[in-house]
Amino acid sequence: MTVIPHWIGGKEYPSAGERTAPVYDPALGAETKRVSLASAQDIESAISSAQKAFPTWRDLSMAKRQRILFRIRELLNERKGELAEIITSEHGKVVSDALGEISRGLEVVELATGFPHLIKGEHSENVSTGVDVHSLKAPLGVVGIISPFNFPAMVPLWFLPIAIAAGNTVILKPSEKDPSAANWLAALFTEAGLPGGVFNVLHGDKEAVDGLLEHPEVKAISFVGSTPIARYIYETAAKNGKRVQALGGAKNHMLVLPDADLDLTADAAVNAGFGSAGERCMAISVIVAVEPVADELIAKIQERVATLKIGDGRRNCDMGPLVTAQHRDKVASYIDIAEADGAKVVIDGRGIEVDGAAEGFWLGPTLIDDVPVTSKVYQDEIFGPVLSVVRVGSYEEGLELINSGAFGNGTAIFTNDGGAARRFQNEVEVGMIGINVPIPVPVAYYSFGGFKDSIFGGTKAYGLQGFNFYTREKAVTSRWLDPSHGGLNLGFPQN
Ligand code: NAD
């Protein structure tokens, strides 16, 4: 069976160790490959390769770095179909959705091509007589990116183009569940002219992650994944003196006001609740229906779900399988909990018929009404195609519910009342807000990130915040000596 190697120094790098993990094709329910799990020696090789490449990459002219980024953009755009097939074969999401995540990643590459404008410093003349100050944004050195399974191309691309544009060298530790996209990207970046060692892929588990967190040569860590691991990454990286941004899990609410267009709202709820089988950190997982809309909205969602085709993502289906059997079973267990907690399972995804292999990791779209807010079904991030409905009596009650949650990643309001929407954007304690937009992932020139347990660290992903994260400012005070500057004065410099 194929063992996926690391990518270090511009080429495939077979592991020096023996440990591997299985990689499945979720629609077939079969192990199709294995992936190397980094040994201590592999970790050292990746870091030393990135470290060696840094000074030359940092000093390469901006124009040359820019040309490489343009070439990456062109190649990725031409060959995105190949990458989408790879993503579907390991993640399970349908091919059109895999293409969607690649286009959102491409946006960040496009932003990064304009990097010279975004990392310019400032200049002030004559801050004191004959003295000038200027600032410049210098790269950090070797930086680590640790990414989750659910966006194997987009999440690395949130960070990678900006980190390298700013002059850093990178070690990406992708999810071990769908590792091939990272190697494919590394090969493509190399083909585009990126020198060896600037972008390395280190596969592995906790051992690889801890190796990056503890190594003094790794200057910064960007992490995306579940909240408990995000918290661990934040604490451990900070303890080791690193700059860190760690984006965690989510539980995103859609607040539906009585004046909303219920047909459009039902479309949005189905798309955002069941797209990518609910394995999106910006998926809608709770509908907060301000009465009297709940019954009518549920009926419209039922009609729509009945038309969805569930099956192998390579066969023009609407929704694919979950990523692993273990994850499918965990998600399905929440449907049992909902029943035990007295909620009403309106659409039950257990035991659905699919267009694909019987052994695939299937779970159909599930809609649960009257979910008690004390239930784990309401409180936990389920990360699957399970949409809860909570009925409330007013806007205020809905807002209070959203603001009392542990997470603050995304939310959406559905209404035709501009005043209510404006009030919501002011009052809701969530980082990314949609107004009649169910998955409000910001475009590349804004930044991505939530509040509360959905993010640890002060900086969001991409946009200007991304450039700030991957650079550190130097402030230079200079004067060109003339005889009038002489003389001794041990006092503190004043202007
Ligand atoms: P995960 O936390 O299990 O894994 C993320 C990464 O951490 C992987 O590379 C994994 O190998 C590594 N990891 C796992 N356990 C570890 C440990 N004990 N020590 C060190 N490293 C460890 O997350 P996942 O299941 O791959 O992804 C789904 C989660 O990611 C969901 O919670 C989802 O909400 C979240 N997510 C958040 C965002 C966001 O922007 N906020 C975006 C995408 C996904």
UniProtKB/TrEMBL annotation:
EC number of this enzyme: 1.2.1.27
Keywords: NAD, Oxidoreductase
Enzyme class: oxidoreductase
Domain of life of the source: Bacteria
InterPro entries, per the entry: Ald_DH/histidinol_DH, Ald_DH_C, Ald_DH_CS_CYS, Ald_DH_N, Aldehyde_DH_dom, MeMal-semiAld_DH
Aldehyde dehydrogenase domain location: 17-476
NCBIfam families: MMSDH
Protein name, as recorded: methylmalonate-semialdehyde dehydrogenase (CoA acylating)
Organism: Sinomonas terrae
